[in-house]
Design goal:
This protein is α+β, with helices and mostly antiparallel strands. It is built from 8 helices and 12 strands. The two termini are about 25 Å apart. This is Flagellin.
Length: about 350
């Protein structure tokens, strides 16, 4: 009688301590786990390239391109209105002015101001009232205070107090010895916490710079107290601030005389020239920007839409592989203790 013998070889199963079971995964499951790790790491490395410097530069370039397009459209609109204004003024010079002509000039100025105010990107104006491009700059206004000049009575020491309508105040110390640059630098440091800046103009005037909304809140006035030299002592005196040249906001039409009309035409010609200059600058900037963005796109490794879809499909497959591997490991971990003991006998 033949007796068959079955040899049961122990698996990689060890029993230690209080029945604690440690199960080493099979060779098949080990291969699956290694493959899964490799696939998971690879897509992550590819996706990280989407957040590279090239991607940031492309985004910034697109923002600049939008700003330039808005500025170009605004400058073209302003140039068109200025051309109409010049035409009206030329007619007034030849045939005299009429009430209808005055109304047309007034409407043209309103259209120009509205066009400039609406030409914004991300809430910031892209063309100022002087018809200059304003990319990456905030909306600010500049003004000076009559009599506040470092060359005026420079040999006399005096302490001057400036009170602004916003409630802030600052002391300005003239010691009669220091140069104007040092005095203005000290003033600049003092007004920074108030959201302002101070600088020295070529003629010695102190020019303040403030955000447009804060400038409007000042209502054109500042209170000044001196010691009797540059400004009266005692009670503060109210001074009307002098706005720095503000381009289109200061555009006026003098139709009362031929000289007045000629001066108005000359002023309009200056604005037209500046509008043309800014348009040329905008076109040149746009051309350089297009070249730069094309170069960045060719050098970057940003994934296309198809590549993104393929990556997502890969993640879906990896998820299925992980589920299969987890189920295999879980099945081995759930082997009953008495079954393992029976196999080892």
């Amino acid at each position: 009688m033949a007796v068959s013998t079955v040899e049961v070889r122990p698996h990689s199963i060890k029993l230690t301590g209080q029945g604690t079971t440690s199960i080493a995964p099979s060779q098949a499951s080990d291969t699956t786990t290694t493959s899964l790790s490799k696939h998971l790491l690879k897509p992550q490395a590819e996706i990280s390239s989407a957040y590279s410097l090239s991607g940031v530069l492309l985004t910034q370039g697109q923002q600049h391109a939008t700003s330039v397009q808005i500025a170009t459209k605004a400058l073209q609109g302003v140039g068109k209105e200025l051309t109409q204004v010049k035409k009206q003024l030329t007619q007034a010079l030849s045939h005299g002015s009429t009430p209808q002509m005055t109304d047309k000039l007034s409407r043209s100025k309103q259209v120009i101001e509205a066009t400039l105010n609406q030409a914004r990107f991300d809430g910031k104006r892209v063309v100022d009232n002087e018809l200059h491009l304003k990319l990456d700059t905030s909306d600010v206004r500049r003004f000076s205070i009559p009599g506040l000049n470092v060359h005026r009575m420079s040999e006399r020491a005096e302490q001057v107090r400036l009170d602004f309508p916003s409630g802030g105040s600052v002391m300005l110390q003239f010691d009669g010895q220091s140069d104007g640059q040092r005095t203005v630098k000290q003033l600049d440091r003092s007004v920074i916490p108030m959201g302002m800046r101070a600088s020295l103009a070529n003629d010695g005037s102190i020019v303040f710079e403030v955000h447009e909304s804060a400038y409007a809140a000042m209502q054109q006035q500042v209170r000044v107290t001196g010691e009797g030299h540059r400004f009266p002592a005692g009670q503060a005196n109210t001074f009307s601030i002098q706005a720095e040249p503000d381009g289109m906001a200061e555009l006026k039409f003098d139709l009362g005389s031929r000289d007045g009309i000629k001066q108005s035409i000359a002023k309009v010609n200056q604005h037209l020239k500046q509008a043309q200059s800014s348009l040329s600058e905008a076109r040149q900037f746009q051309s350089q920007l297009d070249t730069q963005m094309t170069r960045i796109q060719s050098q970057s490794k940003l994934p296309s839409e198809q590549q993104v879809n393929e990556t997502l499909s890969g993640f879906s497959q990896l998820s299925q592989d992980f589920t299969t591997t987890f189920q295999a490991l879980n099945a081995q971990a759930n082997v009953r203790r008495h079954t393992v003991v029976a196999l080892l006998k």
